[in-house]
Amino acid sequence: MSIWIAGTVEEVFAASKTGLVNAIVTNPTVIAGWTKGGQTLESVASDVISATQLPLYMQLHGPTQEHFLRETAYLKRISDRIIPKLPATREGLAAAAELEANNTETLITTVCSVNQAYASASAHATTICPYFSRVRDASEDAIELIRNIATLYRRWGVKTHIRPASVRSVQDVQDCLLAGADGVIIFYDVFEQLFLHPVTEQSLQAFEADWEQTNRLETYPFD
């Protein structure tokens, strides 16, 4: 189980420094933000990988199988840490099947149904990221979607990992994990909230008060 994160360049840098993040994930909106200051996609991707030493999942433009394959080859020349993120379309999954057959890891995005998850597993995709909140916004049961995909994969011994995206809160994180996801893709604001709980805060405040009453040598490395 691992934490994959999305956010601004500054946010992914900050998260990577904790040692708790295992990968960085982008989408076109994220990349547009990264390049807003004038940097190219290529240069900013190289800078992020160099600074974090983490895998970088890059959503490809496509839209055809041929385009996806050419984009992957181009991005791999920048860094082998770049991993293609492809949509759960016929063309995207065809590209994923070819890439996986040639030992290139893939991440399938925009998964919104069990059927798409089934097709992704047929392509031997390494990981899928079902849309959680977006499916819920469409008045569908997002928790049931994750649970059904997990049940299907485990029934047949499918090795494809389930890592939901469009996860907007710590409650969403919990719901996804308990429904059978292998992990989640979260933005920095949710990452920061993973560590918060009122009981933890109350306990630390009580410990701090007790600490102030503890006798210590002046050399104790406290301040």
Number of strands: 8
Beta-strand proportion: 15-25%
Helix fraction, binned, reads: 40-55%
User: pLDDT below 50 for ≥5 consecutive residues: which ranges?
Assistant: none
What string, H for helix and E for strand, traces the elements in order?
EHEHHEHEHEHEHHEHEHH
Overall average pLDDT: 96
- Quick one: overall form? globular
Strand arrangement within the widest β-sheet reads: 7-6-5-4-3-2-1-8
- CATH-derived architecture: Alpha-Beta Barrel
CATH superfamily, by name, is Aldolase class I
The CATH class name reads: Alpha Beta
Organism: Rudanella paleaurantiibacter
Keywords: Schiff base
Protein name: Transaldolase
InterPro entries: Aldolase_TIM, TAL/FSA
A few lines on this structure:
This protein is of the alpha/beta class and 223 residues long. Helix content is 50%, strand content 15%. It has 11 helices and 8 strands.
